[in-house]
Amino acid sequence: MTTPSIDVLYDTPRAPNPRRVRLFLAEKRLSLPTEVVTIMDGSHFRPEYRDKVGSFHVPALGLSDGTILTETVAICRYIEALHPEPNLMGTDPLEKAVVEMWGRRVEFQLLLPIAQVLRHGNPAMAVLENPQCPEWAEVNRPRVVAALDWLEGILAQTPYIAGQRFTIADITALVAVEFMRAIRQALPETHTATHDWLTRLRAREGYVE
Amino acid sequence: MTTPSIDVLYDTPRAPNPRRVRLFLAEKRLSLPTEVVTIMDGSHFRPEYRDKVGSFHVPALGLSDGTILTETVAICRYIEALHPEPNLMGTDPLEKAVVEMWGRRVEFQLLLPIAQVLRHGNPAMAVLENPQCPEWAEVNRPRVVAALDWLEGILAQTPYIAGQRFTIADITALVAVEFMRAIRQALPETHTATHDWLTRLRAREGYVE
Asked: Cα distance from A4 to chain B (closest Cα, Å)?
């Protein structure tokens, strides 16, 4: 039942999942010893990284007992356990489940299609996605547009995605929406609730690149 | 801080995610009032279902306060909070994060490619996946084979996916491996550690269809 401390965060700029962790940390006013990995040259596929981390995933969290955690949400859940305030993943069983539900919906319905358009539609991403499938990028472009409509429908009803307060689900959605730059997809001007939400999120002290 | 009770599980046969919830419940020796939804005729897209559940997702969990939870892992986490024993998602922060990490790896590296081969490669699935992208099914077939090698590598080292004991990560992997029937993908005979793990899982009292 020991709870190891965090030794190091393996991080990389620009990619969406590492930014989710940085935003999560910034909301908690935490800063961790960080090792920056370059992914666009495929460094995370090389033995130097794999020998340390045990997989090619970034972000990763190195703990004092030697465990390396990967998977963004698992990393965030561990950070939340060590640093519970401000709470970002729910305080009681019901809120925890509701936040997880919304977080996953945003991942699957919004972030995943955006990533698919980029990884399969942009030849420069061949280092990360092999083989690429341009037809799959094409299928996902209208799914991104539909997901933006879906998001607008949610934010027209509640100030934050999982309800009345800011949670990890907003972090995931923020990262997804801002990552649309990479696929040259704009947020329609008519999506006023989403624009308002974005303005509020960008004004937060925890807003970081 | 109230914790609503569970009124009803919306379930459907054959699909992998609902089966994950059934296995999770069976391991805890729980049985819930259940409403069975047909998905192969698109019933879950009709207003009768959407008006009740608020989305087209199956499985879903109806709670006594009117909340409807969707997303398999969120549903399981709520069940775990109400019925903690036997524990399937980790007992302390480290184990919880490790189990979540493995659960997500299995989802993304194994279950997702299998589902993509089926949903985009089988014309009968057009009711669930529109538009279909046959090229994407083709890309995912070798990813399934690679994921089986990866799984064998894990199970050659530990008795269960997240370590020394059975967890929700094993449930997800079991459902994925058995769902390969739908894409006519066999588990290679040479994958002896995976076959041994499968035999142990099928002998469990909590093994259900």
From this structure: 8
pTM of this prediction?
A: 0.96
Q: What does the pLDDT read at residue A1?
A: 58
pLDDT tens per residue, range B34-71: 999 988 788 888 888 888 888 889 999 999 999 999 99
B101 and B20 in a common domain? no
* Phi-psi group of A109: left, alpha or beta (phi > 0 → left; psi -120 to 50 → alpha; rest → beta): alpha
Distance of alpha carbon A99 from alpha carbon B77, whole angstroms: 11
Q: Are residues A138 and A111 in the same domain?
A: yes
Measured over the CA atoms of residue A147, residue A153, residue A158 and residue A159, the dihedral's sign is positive
Instruction: Give me Rg for the CA atoms of chain B.
Output: 17
Phi, psi of A11 (to 5 degrees): -135, 160
Best B77, B100, B154, B158 member to test A by mutation, with max A CBs in 10 Å, is B100
CATH number at residue B52: 3.40.30.10
The type of residue at A120 is H
Q: Are A75 and A177 found together in one domain?
A: no
* Contact across the interface for A97 and B74, Cβ inside 8 Å: yes
Q: For strand A6-11 and strand B68-70, is the pairing parallel, antiparallel, or unpaired?
A: unpaired
Q: Which residues of B, range 50-69, sit inside 8 Å of A by Cβ?
A: 63, 65, 67, 69
Alpha helices, DSSP H, located in chain B: 16-27, 47-53, 72-82, 93-106, 112-121, 134-155, 168-179, 192-202
* pLDDT at A194 exceeding the cut of 70: yes
Last residue of one domain, picked from the residues B55, B82, B109: B82
- The span from the CA of B24 to the CA of B75, in Å, is 10
Write the DSSP symbol of residue B160. Answer: B
pLDDT digits (tens, 9 = 90+) for B110-135: 999 999 999 999 999 998 899 999 99
With a cut of 90, say whether residue A51 has pLDDT above it. Answer: no
